[in-house]
């Protein structure tokens, strides 16, 4: 599976707009785009060829035995049939065959989540991040949300309900479900992130993004909100502010892998010649 970072529809739309309407300057390939307070620089050379898309599943793959791949595939098929216990058994075998590969562990967490074993899910998402500290698909958001559920800061089942939004294909019904989640759990930043991707008015979108940023988002959600904020600012004419925000994210050693690549992708399109 190939995934495109960032998962926000609004970012995708903004990137498409930038791709069509980017500045048409001269050859600035070797110039410094940004220098942060620590003296780290970002150049156009570093942004060449950046698209924001990469194959998450190769993280930690290394020399994964073919048997591990086979077990992983069989486990996913079992999960699709609803046989979650069989899927977990096969995924555990895959993990033993490839102990540094985060993918089977990540899918194990999802199977536990579907069984509503939220502690089992949390533990396996956490193990996923131990194998891939800078993020792996939605593991960062999962750990943060499930930990907050365990502490009683969020209702039990919040993360499962959030993932279930992906199954809603009708835009109107999805918007209704997101707004309902926000009414029920206003302190859940990922729901604000989803809502920001569903509104067309940029002023409204910016207000929603600010509410998400004020809701103590996890690192991945925060980065997505900040990237979308930068793109709205650029659309409103604050190009320098957008470049500064995106570059800070791209250079921040604490940014997740997904956010770093997404920020660079946005910059590459915003600054393309």
Describe the structure.
With 273 residues, this protein is mainly alpha-helical. The protein has a domain at 60-153: Serine Threonine Protein Phosphatase 5, Tetratricopeptide repeat. It has 14 helices and four strands. It has helices spanning 9-21, 44-47, 66-80, 84-97, 102-114, 118-131, 139-151, 158-164, 171-184, 189-196, 202-213, 219-235, 239-251, 257-270; strands at residues 3-4, 32-35, 41-43, 53-54. The strands form two sheets. A two-stranded antiparallel ribbon has the order 1-4. The protein has a two-stranded antiparallel ribbon with strand order 2-3. Helix 12 (219-235) packs antiparallel against helix 13 (239-251). The radius of gyration is 20 Å and the shape is globular. The two termini are 32 Å apart. 43% of the residues are buried.
Quick recap:
This protein is mostly helical and 273 residues long. The protein contains 14 helices and four strands.
* Biggest beta sheet attributes: 2 strands, antiparallel
> Helix fraction?
55-70%
- What overall form do the CA principal axes indicate? globular
The CATH topology of one domain: Serine Threonine Protein Phosphatase 5, Tetratricopeptide repeat
Which strand-content bin applies to the residues? Answer: under 5%
Give the total of beta strands.
4
CATH class of one domain: Mainly Alpha
Give the N-terminus to C-terminus distance in angstroms: 32 Å
Order of helices and strands: EHEEHEHHHHHHHHHHHH
Structural class: mainly alpha
Mean pLDDT over the residues? 86
Number of helical stretches of at least 4 residues: 14
